Amino acid sequence: MNKLLDPRILPLTLTVITLISCVRPGGGNSRNVGPVPEGASRSGDESPNGSPAPAKLEGWNLEWSDEFDGRELDETKWQNEVWRPYAFNDELQSYTDHRKENIRVEGGHLVIEARKDGFGGSDYSSGRINSKVGWTYGRMEARIKLPAGRGTWPAFWMLPTDLKGKWPDTGEIDIMEHVGHDPNVIVATLHSTDSNFKKEGPKASKTTKVAGAIDDYHDYAVEWYPDHFDFFADGNKYYTFKNPGNGNNGWPFDKEFHFVLNVAVGGNWGGQKGLDNSAFPAQMLVDYVRVYKKK
């Protein structure tokens, strides 16, 4: 007799089938869709890689995106940066050249992996990429799962496409930074002549707590206007910075900026409380990066 038809086990069989039908493909690695940004509606559809489809933002058009649903990094959109240790901020890592141990696309997301592997004579290796295009104003967002562990310093940020001049006069937009010794605390910062981490006085910066930032994917975004910035985490606005109206010293943000994605190791902030070498390899996973422009 076919056991599936045995009345003694049929209730158990139906229970198992019901439970299986309720489990989302991907199990514990499924992406938490999270809140929808202010003024947005979500269709409920997903892209082929399982990430949420672009939200329909009232008054905005999707202009550019990378969903990381291919097999390789799209080099029509991104370029690899190569640096030696201590090039910036006393960071310990070397940024490697097209090395898949440090930068790759797999499983529908970008992987940037910091490693303690002695590659090329450096104690630590990692990856850093820049977008090949830039924008002036708009909504810039990414969905990211952050690495854990003291000494990690992942970031999603922007620099001027035309780098004539010196930092910080040229400006910097830090949409999301995180240091491993302060887990789940997200930092947004704007750097200028008047406000930067090297200068005493008030900073154009604010933190917010994102529960589970190192455990799951979360949305980080900035809306950039001619007169102010709004910063968001999971659709919740937590910081507004207004144009002070004093020209380039306080607002070097009326020009084109491009994206930077990287995971630094140590440094003058990331390494303030030492390094936990058991944290490596440490991965930042990026589900997507999107740019919206006002209609």
Secondary-structure element series: HEEEEEEEEEEEEEEEEEEHE
Q: Low-confidence segments, ≥5 residues, pLDDT <50? A: 1-34, 39-45
Sheet-strand content, in percent, reads 35-45%
- Quick check: average pLDDT? 86
| CATH architecture label | Sandwich
- Largest sheet entry: 8 strands, antiparallel
Shape: globular
Number of domains as seen in the coordinates: 1
**Termini separation:** 66 Å
Q: CATH topology, anyone?
A: Jelly Rolls
CATH class: Mainly Beta
- Supply the helix-strand structural class: mainly beta
Provide structural commentary:
- The chain has helices at 10-22, 267-270; strands at 40-41, 56-57, 60-66, 78-80, 93-95, 103-106, 109-114, 124-126, 128-135, 138-145, 152-160, 172-177, 185-191, 204-209, 218-224, 228-233, 236-242, 257-265, 282-294.
- By secondary structure, it is mainly beta.
- It has a single domain (3-294), classed as Jelly Rolls (Sandwich).
- Strand 16 and strand 17 (236-242) form a beta hairpin.
- The model is unreliable at 1-34 and 39-45 (pLDDT under 50).
